[in-house]
Amino acid sequence: MALSLHAAPPGVSYADIFAQDKDMSTGYVGAIRGLLGAVLGILAFVVATPLVTYLVLIVSWTVSGSPGDFATYEQAGQAMDFPMGMAAQNLGLAVLIPIAFALVAGLHRLQPRWLNSVQPGFRWRYAVVCLVVAAVVLNVGQLAGQGWVIGAYRPQNGAAWFLVVIVLTSPLQAAAEEYFFRGYLMQALTTVVRNRWVGVVVTAAVFAVFHGTQNLPLFCYRFGFGLLAGALVILTGGVEAGIAAHVVNNICSFTYAALGGSVASTMAVTGISWASTGIVLASFAVFGALAWLTGRGMKVAVRTPA
Description:
Structural class: mainly alpha
Number of helices: 11
Low-confidence stretches: none
Shape: globular
Strand content: under 5%
Largest sheet: none
Radius of gyration: 20 Å
Mean pLDDT: 92
Number of strands: 0
Order of helices and strands: HHHHHHHHHHH
Helix content: 55-70%
């Protein structure tokens, strides 16, 4: 029997699509459905991401001739000591995209395209413009956060292959986190708390916590980015601006690492200074303002069609 999927309710903001859905999300039923979706999503994240990472590493180890014992290979891969380790972790996170879309369709009976934007669908022109803006603003922020000092050109072993992996898989990883945290999870929580801004704050906190061990400035850095990305979803009616910022931030960070140090050392960072956090968050805020103004200029929809 085919799954019957419906469109989003008319005239609502992105964050309120689930909460205002008269077919599936009214009253206690909607709150229970949203809470169940949030729990299932997080469980799927916890189980599926490491599983996919593990499977990719097994395939990589086998294809490369099974060098040494797998436990050592896996440990090095988890630390991103070699390119396929990074690819495995990024592809493990990329599984959040089908997880988010499957929850939208299976649990909420909603056409998954509404997870992109209120248009519905992915607004490519707006996304490309945001990508260009982010490439300029966030790079300036990263350089300022490093004291305007560009590290010496010291490419790590396998730097060329790392760059290939970064370009091909980091956009998937960044988009997956935006679809999951700012897309599905925020909408699901809004059906429970009935306040979109509470959903923004909670998902930003979960996003930061899921990055593991970190000092308070680094937590605030990630929490601040989550707040910005969540606010942009509401203000622009879709995930495109957040994805653009996330993609640029990750590609630039790891590219600088591969060419001037190592990806593994960047991944192992558990603390940064308050000064660096403040500078980078300021660049995020500038990007957010420009992305919002760009959206207004391009007249991107912020509510579903009436």
